[in-house]
Amino acid sequence: MKPILENWQRFMKENREPFEVDKEGYVTLYHVGAGNLEELDPELAEKGRRHYSKAEFRTWDRPRLFFFTRLGQEDPGVGRVQGMPYAAKVKFDKLYPINKDPLKLSYPEMREKFREITGLYPHHPRENNVYERVATLAEKLYNYEGFIYPHGEETIVTMWKKVPVNKIDIDFYGG
């Protein structure tokens, strides 16, 4: 009985969608950061990244923004993130589910298309970084602007385009 329950729990975790998509196709994402912003810019975020972000950027150096998918969500590596809470409305169809990779952009057959788009030589370090290869292909071929991916037990979103945000006047962690 226990293996059935464990398999069911794993299935539910892998197939859950933490997003509520509104009638216009938007989802609400949450960011915690510096105060008084109207727009988040990946280029600026990269310059002011915090210590816990630096490890993320060592594995993939593309400037990007990180978003939670629900209020009160904690970062599995650092816990509660300090700062001002913001909400962003983003078109759900602009977010590529990298863990599912439905377009098979991470597959070896797509390396040639990546080289064609970027002009890079075979086995260039950017080609060998799967995140960068998939991001480039997703953006250039299909107009995606970010990834949906699991982060610990949670789901997060990372975006590599500027995102308008609204400050939300609540305690993000409800305490």
In short:
With 175 residues, the chain is an alpha+beta fold. The protein is 31% helix and 23% strand.
Give short descriptive properties of this protein.
175 residues; alpha+beta; four-stranded mixed sheet; 31% helix; globular
Write up what this structure looks like:
The chain is 31% helix and 23% strand. It is α+β, with helices and mostly antiparallel strands. The chain has one domain (21-167). A 4-stranded mixed sheet has the order 3-7-6-5. Strands 1-4-9 form a 3-stranded antiparallel sheet, with no helix packed on it.
First-last Cα distance: 38 Å
Beta-strand percentage range: 15-25%
**What order do the helices and strands follow?**
HEEHHEEEHHHEEEE
Radius of gyration, whole Å: 17 Å
* Strand adjacency order, main sheet: 3-7-6-5
Domain count, please report it: 1
Helix and strand composition category:
alpha+beta
Q: Categorize the overall geometry.
A: globular
Draw up the topology in text.
Elements: H1 2-15, E1 26-33, E2 39-40, H2 42-47, H3 51-59, E3 65-68, E4 84-91, E5 95-97, H4 111-118, H5 125-128, H6 130-142, E6 146-151, E7 154-159, E8 163-164, E9 166-167
Parallel strand pairs: 5-6
Antiparallel strand pairs: 1-4, 2-8, 3-7, 4-9, 6-7
Helix pairs in contact: 4-6
